[in-house]
Amino acid sequence: QITTLINHKDKPKRSDKTLQAIQRVGQAVNLAVGRFVTVGEAIANENHELKEEMSVACIEARRAGETIAQLTDVASLDHPESDSQITIFTDKTGVVKAARLLLSSVTKVLVLADRIVIKQIITSRNKVLATMEQLEKVSSFQEFVQIFSQFGNEMVEFAHLTGDRQNDLKDEKKKARMAASRAVLEKCTMMLLTASKTCLRHPDCESARINKDGVFHRMRLALEQVIEIVTDSRPNGENEMAPISIYSGIKEFKNKVEGLRENLYFLSKENLSTMLEVILEHTEDFTDSAYTSHEHREHILELSKQAKMELEQLVSVWMQAQNQKTKDLMEDLEVAILKTCQCMNELKREVHSAATSLAADLLKYHTDHMVLKALKITGVEGNLEAVAEYTCKLSEQKEQLVEMCRLLRHVSGTEPLEITCIHAEDTFQVTGPQIISAAETLALHPSSKIAKENLEVFCEAWESQLSDMSLLLREINDVFEGRRGEKRVYLSLPRPGKHNANLKALKPVKLDTEEQAKIAKLGLELHLLTSDVDSETEKWEDQENEIVQHGQGMSSMAYSMYLFTRGEGLLKTTQDLFHQAEIFATEGTKLASALHALSDQVHDDDKPLLLLEAEKLISMCKQLQITAKASAQGKSATFTKVDACILKTRNVMTLLCQLLPLCCKLLRKNKAGNGCLKPAPPWREDRIRTGTNARTPERRVDTFGIKSLENHVTNMTFLESK
């Protein structure tokens, strides 16, 4: 918004709409600064060591926000009495100075607040570690109960702090790692309770001690990882070297190959050969695995051999094209690029099929938890021989599931899902031996209720992880089939030659500075509409609703188009914009279908209005698609087409601003009237709801089981009084 104001072009003639838009932006900036500073001042009052620095930064920010509001108070400029008023039009440098001061002070507040948050998390972690040391050394049950009550409260505090931090993280990879660490802490807190009680009840039992030590060790590792993520550091300054998956390797390899269309000299043939070798080395995880079917193994080996041949052919044509850039050679190069990429796609599809079919079979086979049930029964019977037999079977099952996680990591498709696979692998690796030590303890003390309870807790953790794997498998398949991605990105930008068989495609062009200035006002209106739509979608209780999803998607795309009008963002050329407009129109058509579905649920009185709005939306989207697909030759015609696309997008967004509150109102009315809304999908029912979209596996543990943890603390307090 600030950049929009600074880049605003002064014109002799100013319409009321332009003046109102500028004033709205100025007021919005000032209000946002006011809310921001209020929080900053509250933080300053609670943290005396940084109070002075924070207060100064807050005062500067507030002053700058008020200055911007004054300079953009331009709605009355058309009246003669306002000629002497100092505004953005008469004092552009004033806005620039205020903007610089605002950005500087806001940055300072953010940095200071971040230091405070990191310090709070480290302090909370240190308290947890200190209490854990006390718990390890206790020798009486009464003392343990008292200390565990304190430990539970400290873990609840740590859960809240790290949960907030997780939501604030922008890096999806870090967010997934934080979620995995917090999931470990959540489950281990419950395990620590029963494992410690078992050890106290049976102090001379070696298997009970091993079981307890394993829980404490895992918790310490998870606490350490949280601090690494929060402080963005590694022990001893070492760099994190995550193993490269087949998917990410293929993605990078294809990008390099397709880059040859633009530049024949930007990399060497040795680089490409090395990249392919690394990918094919990773496929050995599949071909060497005892759990890969013979059919999949043969196909992977065939495709690996074919990939080498295709690369050899590509390198041969590429080297010739470097020496002699003829039309025939360039066409041969394009064919070689396409064949190489097609082969890599087939390899990717084959390893995906191998990993997901193995996972589906294993999860189905182990869904009855027969080995766990047998361990519980034989443990209570005190049958050491039978327990030993079933622990061997559990070890085999563990090896199968660990291998499954390793193969799934290669085909997960996104970094957050990769991390979730690694977390799942670690969980099976650690939990398997812990179940075995808990079962051995029960077999040695078959009448011990606490030993039986302890085994139950570890078995539940195993079952829970298996259940999570089913969800993870579904998400991996969603990514592969294009239903979800690393983020909610709605750009399907064409690469040269990818969507068009004709190698002589039209050369994409960018808007020049003059054209950007002409279209700036329309872009600003589009930007304000995206803010309005986002505001409306936030009011919906059910963020998973199809109407909300489509609305958010359209807002995201419209925002990209607004950035294009300023020469920013991912849409670099006019062709990108037209392609985005087509996708936007398609999304709008899907929204219209969702509105038709909603009309079947609402009362008869409301149906005509909803159907009328849906038809309006369909008509507007069709017009936008026609405009986006129409050919435009020459600079002037192209700009006219750009202007028309953005204008029609703005019209759709205006309608969307009216539709969202209407649908929200109808849904609430319908829900209050007969409660016939469709229920959420059953696989989400047992997930703890949070304020954010639970779209990725790393977000499933946002609440860190705080309720269950608090219940445990309450129960322990009751136990103590008893």
Layout of helices and strands, plus pairs?
Layout: H1 2-6, H2 16-46, H3 51-71, H4 92-137, H5 141-168, H6 172-201, H7 206-231, H8 246-259, H9 269-287, H10 294-323, H11 327-365, H12 370-381, H13 384-410, H14 415-444, H15 449-480, H16 513-538, H17 546-565, H18 574-599, H19 607-629, H20 635-674, H21 706-721
Helix pairs in contact: 2-3, 2-4, 3-4, 4-5, 4-7, 5-6, 5-21, 6-7, 6-14, 6-15, 7-14, 8-9, 8-11, 9-10, 10-11, 11-13, 11-15, 12-13, 12-14, 12-15, 13-14, 14-15, 16-17, 16-20, 17-18, 17-20, 18-19, 18-20, 19-20
Written description of the protein model:
- One of its GO terms (biological process) is cell adhesion.
- There is one protein chain.
- Among the domains are: 1-75 and 89-113, Alpha-catenin/vinculin-like (Four Helix Bundle (Hemerythrin (Met), subunit A)), CATH 1.20.120.230; 140-231, Alpha-catenin/vinculin-like (Four Helix Bundle (Hemerythrin (Met), subunit A), Up-down Bundle); 246-359, Nucleotidyltransferases  domain 2 (Four Helix Bundle (Hemerythrin (Met), subunit A), Up-down Bundle), CATH 1.20.120.330; 513-671, Up-down Bundle (Four Helix Bundle (Hemerythrin (Met), subunit A)).
- Helix content is 75%, strand content 0%.
- It contains 21 helices and no strands.
- The chain has helices at 2-6, 16-46, 51-71, 92-137, 141-168, 172-201, 206-231, 246-259, 269-287, 294-323, 327-365, 370-381, 384-410, 415-444, 449-480, 513-538, 546-565, 574-599, 607-629, 635-674, 706-721.
